[in-house]
Amino acid sequence: MSQDTPSSTATVPAAATAGEGARQGDAFENLLHETRTFPPTPEFAANAVVTAEVYAEADADRPAFWAKQARELLTWSKDFDQALDWSNPPFAKWFVGGEVNAAYNALDRHVENGLGDRVAIYFEGEPGDTRAYTYAELTEEVKKAANAFESLGVAKGDRVAVYLPMIPEAVITLLACARIGAVHSVVFGGFSADALRSRIDDAEAKLVVTADGTYRRGKPSALKPAVDEALSREGDAGGHTVQNVVVVKRNGQDVDWTEGRDHWWDETVGAASAEHTAVGHDSEHPLFILYTSGTTGKPKGILHTTGGYLTQTAYTHKAVFDLHPETDVYWCTADVGWVTGHSYVTYAPFINGATQVMYEGTPDSPHQGRWWEIVEKYKVSILYTAPTAIRTFMKWGRDIPDKYDLTSLRVLGSVGEPINPEAWMWYKTVIGGGDAPIVDTWWQTETGAQMIAPLPGVTAAKPGSAQVPLPGIAVDVVDEMGESVPDGHGGFLVIREPWPAMLRGIWGDPERFKDTYWSRFENMYFAGDGAKKDEDGDIWLLGRVDDVMNVSGHRLSTTEIESALVSHPAVAEAAVVGATDETTGQAVVAFVILRGDAANNGDETVQELRNHVGKEIGPIAKPKNILVVPELPKTRSGKIMRRLLKDVAEGRDPGDATTLSDPTIMQQIAQSLRK
Ligand code: 6R9
């Protein structure tokens, strides 16, 4: 560890008293001693797309500010009458009465405006195959897919489950759904058949779009078998709702085939007509559902609608990345299975007419310079990635990126978790060559679009801080009572006013929507994150204050993994914590009490349990460590004290254990782990 790596023994910030999970805040205490600032260079500021006046303009009248963006950035087939209807909080309606088609805005209109020959996607497959799509070509593919899906009986409002790797067909599928008003629900390809099935059932999907497989570290990796398995089993309610499965041929591996249900993409989409007229959908028409982990075991289907979502994603993409679509080459490394791959790969870049790079594989395939080779090859100018990736590259050493010409890079984005100052500085100097501004963007699946981020031509950036709410966004940090904290203090991150890309609810569960986000503080959206305002009023994110972990920027619920563990016959009880990890931000650590015989077979059982979690949820949820213990620390009311387990998992002496029902338990645990 370098000298200024945030120390885990630093004083607990105010936010940490907020909840057990807030102990993660310890690791970020040192962030608050960070005083360096990096103002934009005069050249950058002079050419910036957005200047400082926007803040005042937006503050003067937020709905009017967003209405202006909506009309500037989108082509409406019917103009809206009202910017915001907030008469029934927390259910917002944006751009009421307006009609808009997402795919028309992303594609057709650029072709109509003479930009048909501009490259929309430079695709780079993991094995090295490449494809480029111009806007004209991508429009044609989306029209064909829209016709093909309609011919398979998919109509406006129907749900389509998408289980695809990071290939152009993924965005083609999503845009085709949006075009016909079908609601896509992407399930990350790393999730298991069980997870896929429960999401198919919850959304009652009619169609599944998948691929035979993809490539992972040079090897074929299958997807279709998980779909077959998901659809072959008894669901909670018996049968399933899926009528058809469309399969993209990607890695050529053998697949099982269900006649009548399964259709090759090449044949179905390939044979479809390239004529398709897009009609406007109501501004509040559902665009997609995306499942995300919450504090309970059951993932929530986050619902987003059309007009507001497109407006805020497009505006932030332009303002935060200082997008000059004629000259920039943009690359967001997120998978389409996550919200970043929706907002900042599938929608905003195309709405803004940008040229983007899409890469299928892992950063170390076939060598650890693969990303930098891609940056050099396509002259990428805007890179958007996650701190966990930066920390991995730091570990591999600067020699690797130093071999490539990275001078095309002029804006560097970060998302998914707090970025520590060391990683921030490394990103800026080694990857950005010193001058390129870093934009640390805070947002969530629920917020739909970026909410807190510096503006690269305006803000003097601070390493490790997302800093300022974007224009038109009302973020605050409040104490337990919901009172705004003064500068220099910590608390809970909240959003005080509705925003265009906000979630419209949880699929099929309006009460859960209110309980989860709107009940902690009156009239405020509670994000689940701790944060601190520094002396300048800039915001520093401190990590989750609930039972949600963040592993490599992916959200995982402790409860969900605990349920998976106890569903195994060998496990009597389980508790899961997210332990601070130098590379992945947090790592999953599980404490389990084994039943009878299994206890004598510790090592084997532990391996079996890891695989079991992989099967139940997906490989990303596999615990890094599973520690077999005789007991779990519980309060007198029976609540597991994860805070103490986190201390153990992070190698600290557990803190105050006096509220335990049996204060000797921590010693028993320590003893069992020493064995
Ligand atoms: C976009 C995305 C959301 C959670 C969020 C927070 C963490 C995301 C962050 C960040 C600090 C940033 N998070 N960006 N924390 N700084 N720039 O990641 O959505 O997968 O829903 O995760 O991620 O804890 O609450 P999602």
TrEMBL record:
Residues that, per the record, bind CoA: R216, R217, G218, K219, T340, S552
GO cellular component terms, semicolon-separated: cytosol
Regions of compositional bias (Low complexity) in chain numbering: 1-18
InterPro entries to which the protein is assigned, alphabetical: Ac_CoA_lig, ACAS_N, AMP-bd_C, AMP-bd_C_sf, AMP-binding_CS, AMP-dep_synth/lig_dom, ANL_N_sf
Domain Acetyl-coenzyme A synthetase N-terminal, first and last residues per copy: 52-106
Modification N6-acetyllysine occurs at: K639
This enzyme's EC code(s): 6.2.1.1
Cofactor(s) required for function per UniProt: Mg(2+)
Domain AMP-dependent synthetase/ligase positions: 114-507
Identification of the protein by name: Acetyl-coenzyme A synthetase
Chain's gene name: acsA
